[in-house]
Amino acid sequence: MTVLAELPKPQNLTLLTLNTQYVLTWDWDQTTTGNSVTFTVEYMAKYKMKMKKNWSRVCERTTRTRCDLTGSDLHYLGMYVLRVRASAGGVNSDWVNKDFCPDKNASLGPPSRVEMAPVGNLLDVTISDPMTSTQHSMKEHVLYLYYRILYWSRSDDPQGLKPKVLDSSNNLVTLPELEAWTWYCIMIQSRYDYYNKTSSYTEPQCMQTEGDTPYWQIFLYFLVSMMVCFLLVLLPSYAFFRFYRVLKNTFYPSIQLPAHIQEYLCDSSPGSDMPSLLAAVSEAELCCGKLTICSEVVLLEIHVPPPLSAPPSELEQDSGRHIRQDSGNSGICSTEGGSTQQGCSCGDQDRPGSGFLAETGAGQDGGDGFYAQQEN
Length: 376
Description:
By secondary structure, the protein is α+β, with helices and mostly antiparallel strands. It is built from six helices and 21 strands.
């Protein structure tokens, strides 16, 4: 008859807990049985043990030396019995039991979040409750949960060796007796006095208090804001205005040319307002040289009494002389009496002008007279 050797039991059952997270661990010597050992973990409410109810199995045939009980829906105020055994080669060890009450044995965690905000020369501290594994507040399970706040001045006590202590169950706390424009640091701990539960402290956080703003600082802020306003608003606006002025003066000048100059710059064709630098000329005007134009002669009869002192001989000599004068200094044309040829001399032939032709001699009425021809 073959007798199987007895399998040793797991040793040192320990619970690693934080709020509602529970992990059961144990020790096992691998040198005795090798790596072929598996473990089974079960639990039961303590009041059901007398009724011999079935155990609830959490981990079965696991090779690890730990079992997570977080998802087993253990009530925080309940009392439970946990047990573990080892199995190898069809042989099971004895069960090892451990009592567990979350309200008494589970560790309490620190606040999940801490925020600070200056309010004048005071500080407001916002504290978020520790959270369960299902992201609910631990105050649903621990009704008398409160916080211990340690705070100190960084200038007076840099290491926080002698901090001030403030206990409060509120989630919003205002730190008293603070100085303006001073840095303060805080650390917060969760506490539950019924079972003397205390959490670890949060990491130190520091914030500077505020106070009345000095006048020089207000004036400095005003100057800085004015400079920023000038750089961001006025300067681009001025640049845009200058660009607009240059563009407008270039294409739409405010000073117009005189009317007599615009007549020569505009197209001479009817109904056209398009400006042109040169007036339209014909090919004949471009190819021909200088041209002298004599306007139509208009005879005007002017009776002038003979001079009393002039001798008759001079009147006879002047009677046959014809004088033509241009009022525009363009030239003088003269003909001798009795001659059919005329001589013409023009000083400025490019400018249109008017002149007059004067004839002296016997008038139509047989008397001495003076005749002027005016050129239109």
